[in-house]
Amino acid sequence: MPAGLLMYPLLVPALLFWWYMQRFRLNFLNVVHGQTFHKCVYILVAKEEAIMAAGAAAQQAFGKPTTDFMPHLSLLYADVDDATRAASQQAAVQRLYGEGSDYTTLLTDNGFVAEAISLWYTPAADRSLASWKQVAECQLS
Asked: How far apart, in Å, are the Cα atoms of 63 and each of 58, 113, 122, 132?
């Protein structure tokens, strides 16, 4: 079966999820680095009621067990050593917040209002990200 056809069954739970979602604000905490390819360097998002409810609703809509949801905004996917992750984290802090640069801040607001949610096909085995595709996007009310 072509990979594209595998994505369409996801649209039904996505549409059910989106139907009830309203816009909500995401507030950034800090830039951190993790230990895996998919959590290499990211901005942690505050675990506030709206984002946690959205995470729980998405898990329910897609039939996933409720897990400890860690809201974040990925900045870098990579298989690199800890020293490179730490250097990338520091570079992101400098770039976003202007530390050590001529800018007071490049990030004009410490968060944003989520006005849309998109569904992506992201095969975990694809480390090049070349096969990642946006399947759908829905504007939130």
From this structure: 8, 26, 18, 22
By three-state DSSP, how is residue 50 classified?
helix
Q: CA 107 to CA 26: how far, in whole Å?
A: 14
Q: Pick from 120, 117, 122: which is nearest to 139 by CA?
A: 117
Q: Report the DSSP pairing between strands 39-45 and 72-76.
A: antiparallel
**What distance in Å separates the CA atoms of residue 82 and residue 74, rounded to the nearest whole number?**
17
Residues 6+ apart with CB under 8 A from 93: 31, 99
At residue 52, does pLDDT exceed 60? yes
Share above pLDDT 90 across residues of the chain, in percent, rounded to a whole number? 41
Which tokens belong to 81?
């050593």
State residue 104 phi and psi, 5-degree precision: -70, -45
Tell me the C-alpha distance between 74 and 40, whole Å. 8
> Reduced to 3 states, what is the DSSP secondary structure of residue 65?
coil
Burial level of 66, CB count in 10 A (0-12/13-18/19+)? exposed
Whether pTM exceeds 0.85:
no
Strands (E), 21-126: 24-36, 39-45, 72-76, 111-114, 116-121
